[in-house]
Specification:
The chain is globular. Helix 2 packs across helix 4 and helix 9 packs across helix 10. The chain folds into 2 domains: about 80 residues, Rna Polymerase Sigma Factor, Chain: A; about 90 residues, Arc Repressor Mutant, subunit A. The protein is mainly α. It has 10 helices and no strands.
């Protein structure tokens, strides 16, 4: 049986190497899936997950993340995105590029975001928007744009067609764009 998150964090504070083992046992599979969805390369994904474990080791203490899964997944995702950009400076990775392109029309450009809106504030607005969605739509959105799941996996998860998922995500993005505009975010 996996350890409780607080017990794993206590192991990090004790500087016990067992912390990494317990973290891997409990969340290794989901971390690999997040990285694999972005990179589409098992070896690179494994490297990013291992680097994320090191990053977690280096940041706990002083951090005491709650929830631990979100904290570790954010590190994995950020490292995977960096690796993705390094790997695809010239070529294109259809899985991750497509999901990012889907969001382009409803998010501010990075220049606009830097000038007019703090990233944390934008995250709060997007979180508030997600709270307006029903559970299924919220899960679809997060699975697609946070975990970078392919449409086929989301369709299978919900027992619907890929086309249905695509249409629902399109409608969610349109709602998000309208919501952001109403909140004063210039797109």
């Amino acid at each position: 049986m996996p350890m409780d998150d607080s017990q794993i964090i206590d192991l990090f504070f004790e500087r016990s190497e067992q912390a990494i083992n317990e973290l891997s046992k409990k969340y290794g599979r989901v971390c690999k899936k997040v990285s694999q969805n972005i990179l589409n390369n098992a070896l690179d994904a494994e490297e990013c997950v291992n680097d994320a474990y090191l990053g977690t080791w280096n940041s706990i203490p002083p951090q005491r993340p709650n929830p631990l899964l979100t904290y570790v997944c954010r590190i994995v995702r950020n490292l995977s995105i960096k690796k993705y950009h390094a790997n695809t400076a010239v070529k294109r990775n259809s899985f991750y590029d497509v999901s990012l392109e889907e969001l382009e029309d409803c998010l501010p450009s990075s220049d606009t975001a830097n000038k007019e809106l703090d990233a944390r504030e934008l995250a709060k607005i997007i979180d508030a928007f997600l709270d307006t969605l029903g559970r299924d739509n919220r899960v679809m959105f997060v699975r697609r744009y946070w975990f970078s799941d392919p449409l086929s996996e989301i369709a299978k998860m919900f027992g619907i067609t890929e086309h249905n998922v695509s249409v629902r995500l399109s409608r969610i993005r349109a709602k998000m764009k309208k919501y952001l505009e109403e909140e004063g975010v210039s797109l």
